[in-house]
Amino acid sequence: MYLYNSATHKKEEFKTHTPGRVEMYTCGPTVYHFAHIGNLRSYIMEDVLEKYLRFAGYDVNRVMNITDVGHLSSDADTGEDKMLKGAKRENKTVMDIAKFYTDAFFDDCRKLNIKTPDVVQPATGCIDEYIKIISRLVDTGYAYLAGGNVYFDSSKLARYYIFNDHDEDDLAVGVREGVEEDSNKRNKNDFVLWFTKSKFEDQALKWDSPWGVGYPGWHIECSGISMKYNGEYLDLHCGGVDNAFPHHTNEIAQSESYLGHPWCPYWFHVHHLNDPAGKMSKSKGEFLTVSLLEEKGYDPLAYRWFCLQSHYRKTLVFSWENLDNAAAAYTKLLNRVAALKPEGDVDRAVFDGYREKFLQQVGNDLNTSMAVTAVFDALKAKTNDATKLAVIGEFDKVLSLSLLEKAAALREKAAQTVQSGGGDYVITGEGDPDIDAKVLARYEAKKAKNFAEADRIRDELKAQGIEVTDVKGGASWKRV
Ligand code: AMP
Ligand code: ZN
Fold first, then answer.
1. Tens digits of per-residue pLDDT, 375-388?
2. Measuring from atom 23 of ligand 1, which residue has the nearest CA?
3. Residue 239 Cβ contacting ligand 1 at under 6 Å
4. Within 13 Å, how many C-alpha atoms sit on residue 385's CB side?
5. Considering the entire predicted model, what is its pTM?
6. What contacts 24+ positions apart, CB below 8 Å, involve 14-18?
């Protein structure tokens, strides 16, 4: 596979530390609120990446944290504690909030066919790991104590800005967020590894440490959790593009200083889903969730389809009109798959050819729009339906659009519609139950000698682009 690597700013051949095995890490959600569909864009694309790697034959160990402590609203060391903010908003404890929104996150993931990573670790469960890492960083001079907190000393690094060639001033903490700089810091890029004294007197979760009772900073959790479950050599680290700085930059700084060797060579960053008014955010009050999509009548998988149609390295703009178009295209595809007859033998040579092409095309920097196009190509293939269905099922291991399951359900529904009033009148079409029902109604009108009604229905179908042909024992229809 070739992947764009945001650490080197180029597309590179993906190679792993241990051949055949991928140690993969994903920054998980901060569970102080529902995930918005922008967050979920990142998780959908990371899910496709994981599934593609498995499809390509890798054994993948995917680890994800759940941020239930330490994430401040600025992404750096200032602002409010997000979990505390959520607890106050809902008049609940931090742990209640964490549990509720962790469950809600995985419900959303299930609806979007996002696989649960092999390891899911709440940050509060690995305090000993962070203390071990921070202790060594203090001992080796990479970290210092000031004002009761432990800070990472960014001046000890040969290179700090890994991902961006930004103007330092644009990134400077404090300036960027319009909040006050922490005067304990020796350098502006230093960051907190362990808080003891802070403005959060009412911080609910605190642990004992060599530096006093307190709690970990946000960045250390991902290094600690990854090293615990992925080992010292991580192959692939994922997150939304806003995580690149300061979060991932700081993860690299502390991990490599701790380990004494390079930590993770490949960095995969998903660009944002924006609403037409700008960036989506959980803290701006009203935001778009999977539940809202469902309330409005959308299948969550239509949203997954919408995401797959565009490349992960491009900003995607959400609008209801765009989602409507995606939902219509998804339904049309399902109907076309439903119209295939699961009969005959799979032509292995054709199947292998399509699989290989898919592997090549999608393996070019996770080209998901090509993956979607490949399904349409398979539908048009010069082969039997059984082979087409097998190829589409194979592609869906990566796409996870439930193509075969939903098509089978449509087929079943269509069969039921036909049976319900038609006796042995058999309708064959493209697997759309609404059209089947109209064709059946036309037949019943004719049987009752209500020819005006039968003609009306035929004209209505014609206006929809449906051509009905009477055949022995029933009717067949197609889109023209
Ligand atoms: P959070 O819950 O804020 O820690 O974010 C969870 C994930 O969503 C992180 O990987 C973020 O980088 C990512 N993310 C945040 N906002 C967006 C967005 N608008 N579009 C895509 N991904 C996002
Ligand atoms: Zn992280």
1. 999 999 999 999 99
2. 39
3. yes
4. 11
5. 0.86
6. 14/236, 14/266, 16/58, 16/235, 17/233, 17/235, 18/233
